[in-house]
Amino acid sequence: MLPDMKKIILFLAISIPAYAFAQNEFRITGKIKNIQAPAKIFLDYRRDGERSHWDSVVVKNGKFEFKGSIADTVSAMLMVDYQGRGLDDIWGKANVDEKSVYLAKGNIILTGNDSLKHAKVSGNKLNTDLYNYGLAIANFHSLEDWIDRSNKFVLTHPDAYVSFDEGFPQAGRLDFDPDKMEAIFESFPEKYRNSKNGVSYKAQIEAHKTTANGALAPEFAMPDTNGMMRSISSYRGKYLLINFWASWCGPCRAENPDILKIFNKYKAKNFTILGVSLDYTGGKGDWLNAIHADGLTWGQVADFNGWKNGAATLYDVKEIPQDFLIGPDGKIVAKNLFGDDLDKKLGELLDK
C-alpha cells in the first residue's frame, strides 16, 4: 500500500500499529476467482505479545478462511503462495500478491477476480475504511502527491482508524510542522488519542516542538573518532549542519558526495558539519572505513547505540539521512535540506 521510497521505509520499519480492544474472535473469508490450487494463503499478524504469528490455509475453488482471536485490533498481511511451495518461496520477494487488513471482532470479507491485491475488503468499518484509504492513495505520481492524498483522506475521515494508524504518521513526512500536526492529532476521537500509539504520537509532536525552526538546538556531547568529546555549544558562532547518518545506510552514503561538495564550497564562509552516526556496537570499524571511503573531512561522533543514539533520541530522529542546520546563535534555522535545497539555503545565508 505504501510507496517504496528510501526514507519512508526506515520510518515504516519502526512504526507498529496497535489499539486496545477486548479479546475478540475474528473470521476472514475470501473468494478470489483466479486463485486456485495448489495455492496457499499466508496470514501474518501479532498476537498477544508475540513478535509475529503465522497461519496458512490451502485455497479450494478460489475460497479460503481463517479464524482466530486477538486481544487488540492489529494490522495483518495476507500473502498468496501461488505454487504452494511454502512461505520461503514468497517471503521478502518482489511482486508478491498481498493485502493488508485489520483483525478485529467479526467477519472480514475479501472478494475479487484476478488477485488478492485488487480484492475488495468489507465486513466491518475498520476494513472498509482501510480499503477506501488504499483507493485514495492509489496511482500516486510522487511522494508529494501520495502525502497530499493521504492528508486529504485523514482530514475528511477523522473517525477512521486507518487515518490515525497509517495516514497521520505520514502527514508530516515532508515538513513536520508540530503546530499543524497537533491540530490534526486533536481532531481524532479521544479513544485514539489515548491509545498506546496516540501517546507515542503526542510525544513525537512535543519532541518536534523542541527542534522546530527558531528553537534553541538541544545540547549534546559525544565522542569523536579520536575519543574526544564534541558538543554542539562548541560550534557556537558558526553555521553548523548536524548530519545524522550511518555506514550501513545506503541512502546516506549516496548523499555523502553532495554533502562533501557543499562542505568544500562553504567551509571558508563560517560553515561546518558534524556527522552523527547511528552505527551499532561493534560497528566502529565500518564507521571509520565509511568516513575514509567517502572522504568526509568534517567532525564525526558516535555512541554506537544505533537508533537509540543519544543525539538521535534528543532530536527525535526516526529516519536517516536527516539533518539540522544550526545558526551562529545556536538556534535551528532549517532541517532536512539536501542537495540543491541545502546549497540554496546556505547561499542565502552566507553569500552576502
Structure description:
The protein has 352 residues and is of the alpha+beta class. The protein folds into three domains: 13-123, Sandwich (Immunoglobulin-like), CATH 2.60.40; 143-210, no CATH class; 221-350, Glutaredoxin (3-Layer(aba) Sandwich), CATH 3.40.30.10. The chain has helices spanning 6-13, 125-137, 143-156, 161-170, 178-186, 190-193, 196-210, 250-266, 284-294, 310-314, 340-350; strands spanning 19-32, 40-45, 53-58, 63-81, 98-103, 106-112, 120-122, 221-223, 229-231, 239-245, 271-277, 299-302, 322-326, 332-335. Strands 1, 2, 3, 4, 5, 6 and 7 form a seven-stranded mixed beta sheet that branches. Strands 12-11-10-13-14 form a five-stranded mixed beta sheet, covered by helices on one side. The chain has a two-stranded antiparallel sheet with strand order 8-9. Helix 3 (143-156) runs antiparallel to helix 4 (161-170) and helix 5 packs antiparallel against helix 7. The longest helix is centred in the last third of the chain and has 17 residues, at 250-266. The two termini are 46 Å apart. Residues 1-21 have low confidence and may be disordered.
Features:
352 residues, alpha+beta, Immunoglobulin-like, Glutaredoxin, 3 domains, 7-stranded mixed β-sheet, 5-stranded mixed β-sheet, 11 helices, 33% helix, disordered N terminus
